[in-house]
Amino acid sequence: MRRWVVPVTTGVLLAATGAAADPIRLVTGTWAPFTGREQPGGGPVTRLVRTAYERAGHEVKVVYRPWKRAEQAVRRGTTEAAFPYTRNGARQERYVYSDPIFTLPIVPMTRAGDAGRITSLADMRGLHTCAPQGWSLGIAKLDRMAADGTIHVQRTRAYAQCLKLLDRGRIDFLVGEPPRLRDQVKRVLGDMAPVHLGDVVLSRSSFHLIFDKTDPNVTEAVARANAAIATLDGSTEYRSRVEEKP
Question: Domains in the chain, start-ordered, CATH in brackets?
Answer without folding.
Answer: 24-102+206-243 (3.40.190.10), 104-203 (3.40.190.10)
